[in-house]
Amino acid sequence: MKTVTGLFDNYDDASYAVDELEAAGVPASDISIVANNSSGWYGEDRSEAAEDAAGGAGIGAVVGGAGGLLTGLGIMAIPGVGPVVAAGWLAATAVGALAGAAVGGAAGGIIGALTDAGVPESDAHVYAEGIRRGGTLVTAKVADELVPSVEQILSQSRSVDVAERRRDYEAGGWTGFDADAGDYTPDEIERDRARDGNRL
């Protein structure tokens, strides 16, 4: 199994990629999606199950569901990233890491989950920062023979060039994901989207 990951500036593009992965035969249990929710865009559409999952310590996620991964979206909070909408194995792993982590070290949950799954740490930092800045992460664990088709699906679905995004972040003084950084506000997210030509 290999972990293949795509970062998207637009939730709709990420959602389309998830649908394409499922149509290509990747089980929903092997796909994960984590999307920034600082503007509360998902709040009005929360299911009762998602509300139950969000209870207790402000952390919760509904993972996987009958009818595809996207029917199992829930809300959780990741320190340094902020409020997110998430489903799948990455969300479950990050929540588990957060539940057992000390305050201040909890944000390692998403970085740790990605690196444990085989994502290079430098890329994991870009992915976490990308979510913090309003993006959506799609991650799939796939058998080696499916890797080329999954990579093609993610690259054809308007995903971000990670190396280019790292350079953009570094040009602004960024040195890596900081769990203690403040959450990005909706206004800051919109400012980045307006400045960055490949964001929609």
Give a written overview of the molecule.
The chain is an alpha+beta fold. Helices cover about 40% and strands about 15% of the residues. It has one domain. Strands 1-5-2-4-3 form a 5-stranded antiparallel sheet, sandwiched between helices. Helix 4 crosses helix 5 (about 120-130). About 45% of the residues are buried. The model is unreliable at about 45-65 and about 95-105 (pLDDT under 50).
Could you give a short description of this structure?
With 200 residues, this protein is an alpha+beta fold. Helices cover 41% and strands 16% of the residues. A hairpin with a 3-residue loop joins β3 and β4.
The outline comes out as: globular
Report helical residue fraction. 40-55%
Using DSSP, what is the number of strands? 5
Q: Helix and strand succession?
A: EHEHEEHHHEHHH
Given the structure, what is the number of helices?
A: 8
What is the typical, i.e. mean, pLDDT? 77
| Strand arrangement in the largest pleated sheet | 1-5-2-4-3
User: Into which percentage range does the β-strand content fall?
Assistant: 15-25%
Structural class: alpha+beta
Low-confidence stretches: 46-67, 97-107
Question: How is the main sheet built?
Answer: 5 strands, antiparallel
The figure for the number of domains is 1
Distance between the termini: 32 Å
What is the C-alpha radius of gyration, as a whole number of Å?
Answer: 15 Å
Region (Disordered): 176-200
InterPro entries: Low_temp-induced_all0457
Biased composition (Basic and acidic residues): 188-200
Protein name: General stress protein 17M-like domain-containing protein
